[in-house]
Amino acid sequence: MVAPGPRRKAALSMLGSKGRKEEGAMAAFAAWVEKAQKGLLGLADAVLPPLCLACGRGVAEHAALCGSCWNQVDFIERPFCAVTGMPFPYEAGEGAVSAVAIAHPPPYARARAVMRYSDASARLVHRFKYSDRMEAAPAFARWLLRAGSDILAGADMVVPVPLHRRRLFTRRFNQSAELCRAVARLAGLVYEPDLLIRVRATRPQVGLTGDQRRRNVARAFSVREGAGARLAGRKVVLVDDVMTTGATAEACSRALLQAGAAEVSVLCLARVVPAGGASI
Known about the structure:
By secondary structure, the chain is α/β, with parallel strands linked by helices. The chain has helices at 6-47, 67-72, 99-103, 119-130, 136-147, 149-152, 165-171, 175-187, 210-217, 228-231, 247-258; strands spanning 111-116, 157-160, 190-191, 196-198, 221-223, 235-243, 263-271. The radius of gyration is 26 Å and the shape is globular.
């Protein structure tokens, strides 16, 4: 191999020097961009300081709870019913199913919830639902991902509980759809916001008994015409904000199964838990 001559050596040296200068300039530019981003974030925090998602007090970072509100939220942990996700008062063994789920099996395969519905969780849900606290969706989605890890692992798509078009017009957004969108992004699942529709306006469920709720939402949901092919043979996770008696989740699950879904599971932010939890 012939050694490079003096001119070639000089040219190579110049190219190397130029490359090092370009690398240095790129590194300096990247450092400047990072510094500018931190400055902009600091300015944004000064204008819109991070506030607790529940009470509105100042906190260290966005989409977080203060210590006091965190301690008041009753997160649902095992042991719970393998079907309904309702917490047991004591350990009942892996895969234990509650007496209610055995006596009256729900149409959905499994249900999971992040927390018990209480005064503390109600503040969280209401601020998100009625006060346009959209920045809460990513934080809630992380909680939902943890609570529903077993049902999301085998799912093909996530579907939100729909609002009737009149209620959507007055509320301006569907809180369940926003939760569902954020969960789909984190879990890497298909997000189907318009697959399930509410075909009949229903009266508000607040104040109704379990039987009244079931009659109220009977045949209120349907799979959109022509969407059956997207659903056929798929495992679906239905996402909602609050589960009270389960009437809405059951009605939606039936509609999805009748349209061809292989399985439906339910994932919600909060659910009403009777005193003492689920009976075994």
